[in-house]
Amino acid sequence: MKNNIAVIILAAGKSTRMKSDMPKVLHKLCGRAMLGYVLELVASLKPKQVVAVLGFKQEMVRKIIPKGIKIAIQKKLIGTADAVKAGLSVLKGFKGTVLVLYGDNPLLKKDTLKKLLDYHIKNNVDATLLTAQLKKPAGYGRVIRDKYFSICAIVEEKDTDEVEKDIQEINTGIMAFKKESLENNLKHIRPNNRKKEYYLTDIIGILAKKGCLVEAVKAEDAQEALGINTVAELAGANYVMQKRINEKFMRHGVTIVDPGTAFISFGAKIGRGTVIYPFTVIERDVKIGKRCSVGPFAHLRETVRLGNDVTAGNFVEMVRAKIGAKTFIKHFSYIGDSFVGASVNIGAGTVTANFDGLKKNYTIIKDKVNIGSDTVIVAPARIGRCASTGAGSVITKNVPDNAVVAGVPARTLRKKR
Question: In the predicted model, what is the mean pLDDT of the chain?
């Protein structure tokens, strides 16, 4: 595939059908904004230029746009054709293929786009659509072909007649154009009578009437090319993306006992030989070492770091915590804002009380410490190497190395030899 390509990403829309005040493309899929997946996909194509067209609450969307991507602003949200026009305004001087993508297509794969672009460039086509075959195509524009099977138009569902409603080939909205053909024919698009919006799909009929070459490439998996417009569709896409993430971990030697109940966010890292038990939630920016055991019913929140051979068992919650190698945290514990050393045993029901009502405080537990069941560690606190706490202790002061403490508040009983 030649890389004389420019990409226009349409990311200006509201979340009207999601009933949300957040820009649609910022809604999260497995812990990552939908637009983030599209931006990563575009980067993998190595295009010459990329333009993101922003509009609704554009200052929020800008925060996740990487350097090197140009920004165009759609001042009024009056349709996809107008958004593409805004994108073209910053592509002056570029000659080649323009690929139009949408910020709410997070499931799209590189191989599918590569197939579309290869076909478009090899056959010197004016416009190439990515279409899909759906048994129940309700809600999508239908691809209309003439008696020679040539594409002649795209008809939105609300405008279809009884025959057109039965067409199962749908338009995904993803299109590749010769820049010149796109630029010269956008101006001929007229606003939709009902919404007064300018639809990019209308350009297909315009090109066909002029005798321009309009072709289509079908997505092998229709699911990956469909946009997300509702909260229900977002949940469905989340299921698909989670399956992909879990399968990738399993291919790299991570055992996931029940992939259907392991909720692992994009950006988490897990070492080979680790076992993830059912009903475990692992958020983004969590790093788990090799040969660990996590869950069931564990929740590892942001910036947790587990060394090799760590056990984080039933009903354990961690956040902003670093856990050393060969440490056991087996049952019913909360470890937050903490550093826990190597070969530590943390008994059932242990809590690091990290919040004093104003700020989060830090707990340090050194190597080879034994924390008794139901210990509460009131941060900030430091528990020295090889120390032990009695069951039910409340730690309010630093504990020296080798000390044995117990009580409420905990007092030193003796020093280990």
Answer: 94
Cα dist. 279→116, 244, 259, 276, 295 in Å? 39, 17, 9, 9, 7
Beta-carbon contacts of 338 under 8 Å, excluding residues fewer than 6 positions away, are: 320, 321, 322, 352, 354, 362, 363, 364, 365, 379
Alpha-carbon dihedral of residues 262, 265, 267, 269, nearest 10 degrees? -20
Write down the pTM of the prediction.
0.92
Catalytic residue among 27, 252, 299, 331: 331
Low-confidence ranges of the chain (pLDDT < 70): 1-2, 193-194, 417
Quick: pLDDT tens for 191-221: 876 678 899 999 999 999 999 999 999 999 9
What ranges make up the beta strands (E) of 107-149?
Answer: 127-133, 142-145
Contact present, 329 and 313 (Cβ < 8 Å): yes
Which domains are seen in the chain, by residue range?
5-222 (3.90.550.10), 231-415 (2.160.10.10)
Q: Is 120 a catalytic residue?
A: no
